[in-house]
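Usage

Read records sequentially. Each one opens with the input sequence:
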Amino acid sequence: MICYKNEISKQDKLMYNIAKGKDEKIMKAPFSEYLNTLAPSLKQLVSKLGDDYDYVSVLSTDSKGFAIRISQQVKVISSSNLTTERGSVVRVYKDGLYSEYAFNHFDADSIEETYHKIKKELDAQLAVLKLTNTAVYNTKKLEDEPLTLFVEKECEQLPENTDIEKLVNDLNSYSLEAISKDEHVVDCMVIAQSTHVSKLFLTANRDLRQSYVYCEGVVAPIIVMDGKNEIGYQGLSALGGPEVFTQLKDKIDYAVKFAKEVLTADPIEPGEYEIITTPEVSGLIAHEAFGHGVEMDMFVKNRALGKDFIDKRVGSELVTMHEGALCAENVTSFAFDDEGTLAGDVVEIENGILRSGICDALSALRLGVKPTGNGKRQNYEHKVYTRMTNTLFDSGTDKVEDMIASVKHGYLLEGMSSGMEDPKHWGIQCILKLGREIKDGKLTGKVVGPVIMTGYVTEVLGNVSMLSGDRGVYGCGACGKGHKEWVKVSDGGPYLKTKGRLG
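and closes with the structure output:
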């Protein structure tokens, strides 16, 4: 992971130690031979379409992997997951309008036939827009500066070469181990997903290729007590191969303990409290409460309050936040986005001042700014939106024990349940699994839950008074946008002390 201020997070240390201790196994994730074979024909297609349109690009993806879900009731093994795909999408520009055509079959021996088919479809789309006088954004032509890039990220294993039978047996043993931990554990779901991504982006002047592997795993024991049930969800994610799944075993004890605590938690008395958020909860605030408010495709539509806060204070001087595929190494770390924009590391908040949002290439043209490398598609068949990648609070220098000792009466908030974005108002709507009561600088042992955090981003960030020196990064989920089009994201930060309304 590329770290801020030479800081190494726990996740970074994990991946560093894997690599350092097993140098002989480290290899490059090989770029897709399928895309390499396809590239010359796709270049011909770009060239032919270039005679008809002012701008032409092709994004081709070949992503393979697996998804495994194991419990004592269910066993599912699949060679596909959310991000496995094989296909291409052409984007063109003419007469101030953009149009796209997606396809998953390309005959290299029939370039002429394919060209005419695609041109017919693209022209039909453009004609409809003109004939119906459909309102469109005034958008200039995308730049096409010459660039060649070839990136193969390192990993230890490839999903396509994984011994699935052994992995299934290992995951099943983790499930059984969780069940043996406590009489109230009735089952345990263990999930392992790994994806090897290869992407090719071509224009008249660009040839960009990248290949990387990422994984995500979950241990989820199911607890039943006194007629109530709870799932103790604990996960891990990393830019790397299936070798990381051995670490799921280390998550079992806490997953069981946490689920039992949630089931026995007392209701919280609503009010305003001093709060400390764990790195996971800090990430939830970073992504849901803050991050969606600075996605600049919403600036274009005047649907985000963040547009009015550029170069204004949104947090205390302690708050600095980064966003981008290069600011961390996790499930959404890449070399270039789905529009051929090189990945970035954007300083969104600098010492409490909002410096920048994030944007895709077309939104950048409409706003007169530079794209940030955040144009992402669910897959080749879906449109590009401005999407978050890694969204992280910078660490501070405080120790967690000192943060707890500074609290007169409040809660340590732990366990993400859900969050809701509110770009227009920057309202916070986060539900946490539990809160650990703190009185006079000490944890009392009392646990409350669920805990609903409300308020506004500027209030919560403005009241930040302490930040821990360590940081966590979490990438087991996905973010929905538009017509619930999903992409991988990660978020996180350090322990964060602030004030907030809880109920």
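Summary fields computed downstream for this record:
- The mean pLDDT is 92.
- The radius of gyration is 24 Å.
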